[in-house]
Amino acid sequence: MGYTTFDFNDGKVPGNDLVKYSFSKGSYSTTAYSGQTGIYSDVWAPSGANAQVNQTDYLAVFSDSDTIIEAQQNNTFSYFGFDAGALSGGNTLKFFNGTTLIKELTYDILNSIATVGASQHGGQKNGFFEFFSEGTNDTFNKIVISQTEGGGFESDNHTFRVQSVPEPSVTFGILAIGGLFLYKRQNQKLQSAKKST
């Protein structure tokens, strides 16, 4: 289905028929420096690759409300990338498939690989992070962005790769056909071995 990128430049929650954003407390704020999860344009926006000041709107998650991003129409994500700004203790990112936690990333992990220290953020690190699924066993259909301590979790330019999940009967059919080919191939090898003896 390709890649889709959402920014927050219009000051509204992005999304489409494949990706849905929601908030654990139901709504979000647009009042800068309110300490509430919302969409803002201020000094804390994730910086550019060379620590440039970003003056566009971005998503800030505070401890009052998680941001939940879900694949729609029974699809899954195989990729998620995003700009993170001013990383601080308590930044938490969780990937789920249904109710099963696939992976949890915390501030310590993100901060250890972040590459840009921005002076407008007091030297706190920024970076673009990418997460790839390695197979069907680690695809995810929900991402939860949380802030468990003081400060916020600032992000922008959320990029997704959405893929459809095959129907169970289609998957079974593919497995059955694959098994049939394997069976035929094995019989051909056995017959060839018998003829050569």
Shape: globular
Averaged pLDDT: 85
Instruction: Provide the β-strand percentage band.
Output: 35-45%
Number of helices: 2
Number of strands: 12
- Write down the secondary-structure element order: EEEEEEEEHEEEEH
Weakly predicted, low-confidence segments = 167-190
Oligomer: single chain
Share of helical residues: 10-25%
Structural class: alpha+beta
N- and C-termini, Cα separation: 52 Å
The Rg value, from CA coordinates, equals 22 Å
Largest sheet: 7 strands, antiparallel
Description:
With 197 residues, the protein is α+β, with helices and mostly antiparallel strands. It is 18% helix and 38% strand. It has helices spanning 107-113, 168-196, and strands at 3-6, 19-23, 38-40, 58-61, 67-71, 75-85, 91-97, 100-106, 116-117, 125-132, 142-147, 153-164. It is globular, with a radius of gyration of 22 Å. The model is unreliable at 167-190 (pLDDT under 50).
Describe the SSE topology.
Blueprint: E1 3-6, E2 19-23, E3 38-40, E4 58-61, E5 67-71, E6 75-85, E7 91-97, E8 100-106, H1 107-113, E9 116-117, E10 125-132, E11 142-147, E12 153-164, H2 168-196
Antiparallel strand pairs: 1-12, 2-5, 3-4, 4-12, 5-11, 6-10, 6-12, 7-8, 7-11, 9-10
List keywords for this structure.
2 helices; five-stranded antiparallel β-sheet; single chain; alpha+beta; 197 residues; seven-stranded antiparallel β-sheet
In a few lines, what is going on in this structure?
The chain is globular, with a radius of gyration of 22 Å. A hairpin with a 2-residue loop joins strand 7 and strand 8 (100-106).
